[in-house]
Specification:
Elements: E1 11-14, E2 24-29, E3 33-40, E4 43-48, H1 57-64, E5 70-80, E6 83-94, E7 97-98, H2 104-112, E8 120-122, E9 125-126, H3 131-137, E10 142-147, E11 156-164, E12 167-177, E13 189-195, E14 198-205, H4 211-222, E15 225-226, E16 242-245, E17 250-255, E18 257-258, E19 264-265, E20 268-272
Parallel strand pairs: 1-11, 6-8
Antiparallel strand pairs: 2-9, 2-10, 3-4, 3-5, 5-6, 6-7, 10-11, 12-13, 12-16, 12-17, 13-14, 15-16, 17-20, 18-19
């Protein structure tokens, strides 16, 4: 089998869901540069996910010392107070064999046999019941959830999921949209916050509900309906299928960040006060 000059890296899909299960494994999400390491004989090449060469002599030397003839490693390059580190989380080729069609657990077993030494670092499994809580408490960017049986796909996949650390704050509900398709109760909450005299529209919240909560919220909001939007400072308000309510109901919302337009990005309902 010919040693490949390039391998399109597998990418994780961002999710707002939070879950665990025996079929999933979790690891730290590093905030660095995705790096594929190609070693054939004594030659080592380090390439970014855009196929650009990277010069990291300490990493290249450590890979050259591995007791293999040829290997392709996947990982993340970071810099910190302790210096440079290449966090290896996958192996896609090993000694003449393409292992992309081998399940993740088996690829990890192959990786575990390699004597990895600094500045190489082995990415370990996180076993806490709620790994995203550990990530946020330790100041990480988040966690990656991976299906144990996942093959190495050369694309963005839902078999690898990114759970980023979220900010959280309370907002007032100023309206809601009608449900679509099989959804019941309501589609999304339209939330905002008070800034001096203004009630500022902060965006929509459409995930984090179960059916019971959707129906309960709709019944509660129907009693507070008003004919006009209560938002006094608003861009991007929905023009159709929107209902307006007195801003009395307070909800806790998680979100990744604020957009440049002052809206919540990847928002999720955490609770109703």
């Amino acid at each position: 089998m010919l040693f490949p000059e390039w391998v399109e890296p597998m990418a994780a899909t961002l999710t707002q869901e939070r879950f665990t299960g025996p079929e999933w494994t979790f690891e730290r999400k590093f905030d660095g540069i995705r790096l594929l390491a190609f070693r054939r004989g004594t030659d080592v090449q380090l390439l970014s996910r855009n196929r650009l060469p990277r010069s990291c002599p300490p990493v290249a030397k450590a890979i050259a010392r591995l007791p293999v003839h040829d290997v392709i490693l996947d990982g993340e390059l970071t810099w910190g107070h302790g210096g440079m580190a290449y966090h290896v989380f996958d192996v896609v080729w090993l000694d003449g064999r393409d292992v992309t069609q081998v399940p993740l657990d088996e690829r990890r077993a192959l990786l575990a046999k390699l004597p990895i030494e600094p500045p190489l670092a082995r990415v370990t499994e996180i076993t806490e019941p709620e790994p995203w809580d550990r990530a946020c408490s330790e100041g990480w960017e988040g966690v990656i959830a991976k299906r144990r049986d996942s093959l190495y796909e050369h694309r963005r996949s839902r078999h690898w999921l990114k759970m980023k650390c979220e900010a959280s704050r309370e907002f007032f509900v100023g309206g809601f949209t009608d449900p679509q398709r099989s959804r019941v109760g309501l589609g999304a909450l339209l939330v905002g916050y008070f800034d001096q005299e203004d009630f500022v529209f902060a965006g929509k919240v459409g995930t984090g509900f179960d059916t019971k909560l959707l129906l309960e919220l709709r019944a509660r909001l129907d009693t507070a309906e008003i004919p006009k939007s209560p938002f006094t400072k608003a861009t991007g308000l929905p023009r159709v299928r929107a209902h307006w309510v007195r801003p009395e109901v307070v909800v806790e919302v998680s979100f990744i960040e604020w957009t440049v337009h002052g809206k919540l990005r990847h928002s999720r309902l955490r609770g109703v006060r």
